[in-house]
Amino acid sequence: MWIYGCSLSQKKSTPVSSVRSRMEKATVSVLLEGSYEHQMDIKDIKELMLKKAEKKAIETIGSIWINQSLLFRGKMASTPSATPQKRDYYQVIKKFTPTLDKITNVYQQRFTMEATLYPVPSSSGVIVGVEGGYSLATFHILLYLKGDIPQGQQAFFIIAKKNNFRVGNYYQLVGIGKIYNVAGRMAQGEILSSNEEISKGDVIFLLHTKLYPLKEKKGHVTSSPGEGNSSLPVVKVHPEMEPSPHKGEPKEMK
To answer: Is residue 192 included in any domain, yes or no?
Structure first.
């Protein structure tokens, strides 16, 4: 059962001009065994590499902020915007050709993700539904977007709790997640990682995120983590066909 509506008390108004953005960047290297080329074409190989890079990069960025228990000053929208704007919060550059090392038969491609937190009313929202009650094991949540509507049904977001020990609108970052479905102002999302229980009333701010490939040097492939001069997080993909993702109907939330 969905329960809508919650109020966020604000002791003191925070002007948007005092809110600062914060950007974090992560570069990852994706390795994929060349035997994949017998199971899928190059287009599918590139999509798989992008998917793996996205997962590892956002996990890396999220772990940095969560481990810091990042404290930031933000401004929630007191009421939903009258005319919400559709905005592209997640950009993916798909133009690249992965390098294949003919000796090791391994494809490699490096990707960089940039995520920028700008906690202003237009990127704000609130959690109005939680699957499984109040638990660290919570996976799916329902969001109410008070400002912009993400273009293309996808966007990353941070989850925060109000910090009541400071005067003004200070928030503590406790998790990071991804929106996978948008219907009007309502959105379904999944929590990727968190260090506290997530509950109704927690706030979210959408992240401006960009994922793009880096140009590879011809013949330069790091065959496994720790080899060569690479200190990047490495995602190794083995030639096993993944089942088609099926979200199914969302479970009832309380």
So the answer is: yes
CA angle, 180 then 182 then 188, to 5°: 55
Residue 252 within any structural domain of the chain: no
| Residue listed under structure tokens 């539904």 | 129
Q: In this structure, is residue 14 part of a structural domain?
A: no
Output the CA torsion 151→62→31→111 (10° steps).
Answer: 50
User: In which domain, by residue range, is 158 found?
Assistant: 22-237
Q: What is the 3-state secondary structure of 194-228?
A: ECCCECCCCEEEEEEEEEEECCCCCCCCCCCCCCC
Low-confidence spans in the chain with pLDDT less than 50: 1-17, 223-230, 238-252, 254
